[in-house]
Amino acid sequence: MRGGIDLGGTKIQAVVIDESDSVAGQARRSTPRDGGPADVADAIAEALEEAAGGTPAALTGIGVGSPGTVNEATGTVANARNLPNWTNPFPLGETLASRFGVPVRVGNDVGTAVEGEAVLGAGRSFRTFLGLWWGTGVGGAIMVEKHRWLGRGAAGEIGHMVIKLGGAKCTCGRRGCVEAYAGRAAMERKARRDQKHGVETRLFALMDEHGHDQLTSSVWQHALDEQDAYAEKLIERAIRALGAGAASAVNLIDVEAVVVGGGLGTRLGEPGVARIREAMLPHLFVDDRPPEVRLSELGDLGGAISAARLAPVKL
C-alpha cells in the first residue's frame, strides 16, 4: 500500500493505492492559506492519515506531487508561490518520512500527473504529447515515449510562455505569461479588483454560499451554470490564452496530442477541452494537421494516484 499526495493551491488530495494502482482510500483537505510550509506539511499528513483509514502503518512508501521548485534528490521544495509563505527550501520529504517512518519521494506536481496520464490515462496511446494542466496556476510537461523531457531541468513550463509583450503581471514577476490570464489565482485577483470597481458578479456570493474562502474550480463551475456573464468573460479570456500558448508550443515541438487536466481543466470537462481546441486552431502553423486534444482520464484523483506511483514498492 502506497500513499499519494497531490498538493495544490486550494486543495490537498490524498489517496492510498494497492499494488495494482487501484484506490483503496482517499481524503481531501483545503490547503492552508496562512502559516507556512510546516503547516502545509501537517495538513498533508492529516489527509494521508484519513485516506489510510487510521492505519498509516500499513503504508510502505509515500509519493508527493508538489508545486514549486522540487529537488527530487533531497525532497526539498522552494518557491511554491501559490502556497503560504513558501519561498525558501523546505524539507517536505524528510518531514513526512519522519512522521510516517517510510520512504518519501517528492516530484513536480504537474510533471508527476502527466506521467501518470502517459502510463494509465489519456496519453498512453501517443508517442509524444503535451500535458496542459489548468488550475491555480498553469503547468505543463512534455512526454516522449512515456518519459518526461526535462531539457536542462525546467522544460514544459507552458504557464510562463509569454503570449503578450508587456501584458498582465504574473505571479512569477514577469508580464504577459499564459498563467497571468488563465491561472485560477490570477483570475481571482482580477475578479476581486474588478468587483471593487463596480463589476457585478455572483462569484464571491457563490464562494460564500458553498463554504469556500477562494474561487475554487467548483465555484467557477457554479457561476458558469448560473450564466454569470462576468465569470464567462474571464473563462473565455483564459481559454484564449491557453489556446495561444498550447498552439505556440505545438508549433515548436510538434507533438501528436495535448492532454488537458488540472482542477479547472477537469472541472470544465469535455466542453472546456473543445473550447481550448477551437482556441488553438487560429494559431497553429500547420493548421490542416492539428494535434489531438484530449481530456485527462484519471480525473480529480489523477495527480494523487500518479504521486503514489513515485513511492518505492516493498518487495
Question: What can you see in these coordinates?
Answer:
- The chain has 315 residues and is α/β, with parallel strands linked by helices.
- The chain has two domains: 2-112 and 301-308, 2-Layer Sandwich (Nucleotidyltransferase, domain 5), CATH 3.30.420; 125-297, ATPase, nucleotide binding domain (Nucleotidyltransferase, domain 5), CATH 3.30.420.40.
- Helices cover 38% and strands 20% of the residues.
- It has ten helices and twelve strands.
- A five-stranded mixed sheet has the order 3-2-1-4-7, sandwiched between helices. The protein has a five-stranded mixed sheet with strand order 10-9-8-11-12, with helices on both faces.
- Helix 1 packs across helix 2, helix 3 packs across helix 10 (302-308) and helix 7 packs across helix 9 (262-280).
- The radius of gyration is 19 Å and the shape is globular.
- The model has no long low-confidence stretch (mean pLDDT 94).
What's a concise summary of this model?
Helices cover 38% and strands 20% of the residues. It folds into two domains: 2-112 and 301-308, Nucleotidyltransferase, domain 5; 125-297, ATPase, nucleotide binding domain (Nucleotidyltransferase, domain 5). It is built from ten helices and twelve strands.
Summarize this structure as a short list of keywords or feature phrases.
315 residues; alpha/beta; Nucleotidyltransferase, domain 5; 5-stranded mixed sheet; 12 strands; globular
Topology:
Layout: E1 2-7, E2 11-17, E3 23-30, H1 37-51, E4 61-66, E5 69-71, E6 76-78, H2 92-100, E7 104-108, H3 109-120, E8 128-134, E9 138-144, E10 147-149, H4 178-182, H5 184-196, H6 203-209, H7 217-225, H8 229-253, E11 257-261, H9 262-280, E12 292-295, H10 302-308
Parallel strand pairs: 1-4, 4-7, 8-11, 11-12
Antiparallel strand pairs: 1-2, 2-3, 5-6, 8-9, 9-10
Helix pairs in contact: 1-2, 3-10, 6-7, 7-9, 8-9
